[in-house]
Amino acid sequence: MKVPKQLKALIADGLVDEVLRQLMSGKEATLFVVRCGTEIRCAKVYKDASQRSFKKAVQYREGRHVRNSRRGRAMAKGSKFGKKEQEEIWQHAEEDALYLLSRAGVRVPRPHGCFDGVLLMDLITDAKGDVAPRLNDVTLTPDQARKDHATVMQDVVRMLSAGIVHGDLSEFNVLLDESGPVIIDLPQAVNAAGNNNARAMLTRDVMNMTNYYGRFAPDLLRSKYAKEIWAHYEAGTITPDTKLTGRFKESTKKADVKGVLNEVKFAATENKERQQRLRERDQLEKEQHSEPSRSRKNGRNRRRR
Fold first, then answer.
1. pTM for the full model?
2. pLDDT band at 75 (very low <50, low <70, confident <90, very high)
3. All structural domains of the chain with their residue ranges
4. Domain 5-235 top-level CATH class
């Protein structure tokens, strides 16, 4: 087994004592089972940006704030330093999300820190102590499917209450331990309030999970959890303990197309007037700056005479 240089660095620093085996390799990282003192943990070694196959990363980065203006400018320009900073933010995004969601009561692996592109976290195991299977590798009874689906929907609510949408939730990103589903893989988690794609991503997350559990309990396929959850979010009524029904009544009120067009027209007119005021202000400033020059020139002419 080839041990990545990132893990060798953690061994040298005493953060990892031994690499036991490779667990799996995914589109954005390779997972290893490691020993840290007396504990067996999971080490997620992120792949370099040039090796990752994760698509549309720009959509997921929208809304992630950079406090340092120099870093922000560098990332916007795409400089070497900017790319390095963007990569660091990407790697620490999952760590930040795991800490936040753990505190919010979401069933996720407990993180132990991210060091030089390696995220250390709890290894999720089943009742026998073996690595927990992913949902796509298990078969469920209808009752178990309904129970686990309800658990995942409540975790989606808790994530949204904490301001986060998973963004890539499916049966491939959920493990099943002896207590139920555990959500994993969160480097692409998005800021619900700051990302224009948040609603679409949440809808996709919910539909992915509903379609999976619906294989075993077809009655779930008639539910409307995504619309119900987002309606609570938009209304400001969502809490970690919001009770869901899976039912959502569509509004029968006709859209006020005329009103919307009037608002658009008003905004366009207001913007046009604002631009005109700015041009007039600039012209006034130019005239004011030119007045002293004309006065000095007239003074010199008088002295010559």
1. 0.73
2. very low
3. 5-235
4. mainly alpha
